[in-house]
Write a structure and sequence with these properties.
Blueprint: H1 6-25, H2 29-42, H3 47-59, H4 65-74, H5 78-90, H6 94-106, H7 113-125, E1 130-134, E2 137-141, H8 150-158, H9 164-167, H10 172-179
Antiparallel strand pairs: 1-2
Helix pairs in contact: 1-2, 1-3, 2-3, 3-4, 4-5, 5-6, 6-7, 7-8
Length: 196
């Protein structure tokens, strides 16, 4: 096999990412994952392909999904932190979910419904400590993170008055999918932005 120039490598990588994203959006998740693996072989540390592999694996209910989101997050992909929070929250690991949501917000994601949901979820999972007076002293009671599912938090915290008609038809998975489509065509980072 002929050695590729960096320009050829980047063009092939971008074409594979776009092809996989097209397949994924058409509902052919297994084929998309196969194409993402080809892109991974070209640039194994690229956060976009790591995230897309994780996203496809999540749809296929692969138990290694979390590993790919963690790898993408370690390479700077902010959306991977959000997805990790969702995975932890839906599996009852609320403390981990809060940690990922805080990391997500620290990276200054765009202000949108996901960012609002992240803030509302943190507020719901980490209420302020209660102050009580005992024997003449003010004391803060330590609160445990409540064990409740993310679906109620999503429905309460993210649906605005404008969304009420659609809100009753949305599921939590629909909300996640609406924010975290695969990286596709425009907006793909260059080598320098991906830390390579």
């Amino acid at each position: 096999m002929k050695s590729m120039t960096p320009i050829d490598l980047n063009a092939t990588y971008l074409a594979l990412v776009n092809e996989g994203a097209d397949l994924f959006s058409e509902g052919d998740t297994e084929a998309a994952l196969g194409v993402f693996w080809k892109a991974f072989r070209l640039r194994p540390a690229a956060p976009v392909v790591l995230f897309n592999i994780g996203r496809a694996m999540e749809e296929l209910k692969d138990p290694e999904t979390e590993d790919f989101y963690a790898a993408a997050a370690s390479q700077g992909n902010v959306d991977a932190l959000y997805q990790l929070a969702v995975l932890c929250g839906t599996s009852g690991r609320n403390e981990e979910a809060v940690g990922y949501l805080k990391a997500y917000l620290k990276r200054n994601p765009p202000e949108d419904k996901c960012t609002q949901w992240a803030r509302n979820t943190i507020r719901q999972l980490c209420p302020s400590p209660l102050l009580v007076w005992s024997k003449g002293k003010r004391t803060a009671l330590k609160l445990q993170i409540p064990a409740f599912g993310f679906i109620p938090a999503f429905l309460k915290g993210s649906v605005t008055d404008d969304d009420r008609q659609v809100g009753s038809q949305l599921s939590f998975r629909d909300f996640v999918r609406s924010r975290h489509r695969l990286a596709h065509q425009k907006g793909l980072p260059s080598n320098e932005e991906e830390g390579e």
